[in-house]
User: Fold this.
Amino acid sequence: MGKLYQIGNAILRVYANDHLPPHFHIVSPDDQAIVEIETLNVLRGTLGSNGQAALRWASENIATIKAEWNRVNQRFPIA
Assistant:
């Protein structure tokens, strides 16, 4: 559910009806992290090499992530 992008075995997900602050998840078999959309700071968890690559993709595609957050979390829209 909520799969937005995958690099290697790391999947970037935005979940519907999620909580604040606006964030996305990077999930892989070895680690997972919650990343704040506005700052790209890891709020919780750890990232391996594929997770770091997913975070680089996120920094280059922040508008896509914001659009997906706004689409599935309409009660907490972000600009």
